[in-house]
Design goal:
The structure is a homotrimer. Chain A is built from three helices and six strands. The termini of chain A are close together.
Chain lengths: ~140, ~140, ~140
């Protein structure tokens, strides 16, 4: 392992937020080649790698995930934390909370159109905590 | 790599089962910092990290995933292994079969509410096999 | 890290394609034990590990994912790249773009029925680029 660090993101609104620059700023010294693991320590948020250019993609992500996992499904039992909570846990299961990304030439090796996303599934999720682990 | 070990879980019923303690018991000697990879060697089960406190979350996970990927969709071709089989493969694609989790201070660094889940998507899946790989 | 290499897959048709042999052929020299990370550098394709035997599983994967995330949902904004584009981004979020797989006895340690899939979500995605990173 090269190093491990923890960062706290600002509180984002519900939706899909590009955090590539938050991650790279916290990684001052990347190895020539290796892997980065990004891990979010919450059960109602998620991480994904997706299209980093057109903001309408983020709007549609929110719409389609809400369509897939709507609030207020009549059979739900876990409702005491609000109608956005149980759908948030399911969305987190769908996107996952851990990403592993190659490092090459001392930089994250993402595709041209790839960015790292924090998916905020709660109406008021607060500032989410990430752990970044770098291997070479 | 620090070490790699294989464990066999007991046969769980269809549903979502916290296995954090099975995993940590198999990891006798964790490094100060590093990563753990958990891998399930099956195509009709999955792994996820999710809410570890309220049992109603596990009930709703089962309900919502069944709602997302119901059995007996009329267009299915892969039906000879029973109506729970093809939906199980899709659910496994959705959750994934491999988790990478940071290790810090000689322990798994999970969030307060995070636990490791074995998602058993078959009616009778039997005892599932995991490989645990620890890096420092 | 043992080594890192990049491969370009042939242009696959829309659907689910076993690429285990493409990956293993590019890994000439695996360590006794370790991990392999496979990463696809695109936002409208995905990677998964799933059933490697019955071709009807691949047909049903395509049908069920199209059923989950249909084209032409009336509320979509990101439509200028064609009706298959935004659903492709969502499917990529669902399967993920990064897989970590254990290596044991100098081979990928997959379950008997597990294979590595390239999920091509576009009608004409072209040849997709993968980075393979091996750790021991």
């Amino acid at each position: 392992m090269t190093y491990q660090t923890e960062i706290q993101l600002p509180a984002f609104s519900r939706g899909y937020h590009l955090i590539t620059s938050y991650v790279t700023r916290a990684l001052s010294d990347l190895p020539e080649a290796g892997l980065l693991n990004v891990f979010v320590h919450h059960t109602s948020a998620g991480l994904m790698i997706n299209e980093n250019a057109d903001p309408s993609v983020r709007v549609d992500m929110e719409s389609i995930f809400n369509h897939l996992v709507p609030e207020n499904l009549p059979f739900l039992e876990h409702t005491m934390e609000g109608p956005d909570d149980m759908p948030a846990h399911v969305k987190s299961a769908l996107t996952g909370v851990s990403l592993t990304i190659p490092i090459a030439n001392g930089r994250l090796k993402l595709g041209t159109w790839q960015g790292i996303y924090l998916c905020e599934f709660r109406n008021r999720g607060g500032g989410r905590k990430l752990t970044l682990t770098v291997y070479h």
